[in-house]
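Chapter summary example.
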Amino acid sequence: MKRFKKVLALVLAGVLALAMLTACDGGTTDPDSIMPEDGTPEVVMTVNNMAANKGLGQVKYSAKYSAVTKALLENWLEYTNNKINNTTYWENYRKITAELGSVKIVVGMTKDYRPITSDYNPASKTSFKYDSLFKDESAFNLAEKIGVAYVPTSNGTVYQAVCLFDVN
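The structure predicted for these 168 residues follows.
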């Protein structure tokens, strides 16, 4: 009986070990797709729902491109708060976008190659208008990735920017 209990315990331990291994995804979760809990999941879901309603493709969240979006937003905020001049704004903009290589920003912080107005993108979090992302549906359809960024300011306003990226 003692021997049977030992064998049974060993078999059960083996079954539990196998059960744990089958539940594991093997670490295949892409770290670039992990969204922060700052409102980003709601933004991505809203943009994709709006795109689906318009018959457009879906975009996937990217932490990497969200960092680029945040750098662009911070640069824009420095410009709008008169901390840097137009020349410095564009030098910083070119440095940030040069790191993208062949990746292009198709919608977002690129409107007409000028610093964009606060009613377009970025905007305060409470007044962000997602419709602006769909003004050019052909550009939206080029996008595969979405970057979402939030930057709080000293006066308590939180600014948000959304950029869509063509990575192919």
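To summarize the output: Strands lie at 60-61, 104-107, 123-124, 145-152, 158-166.
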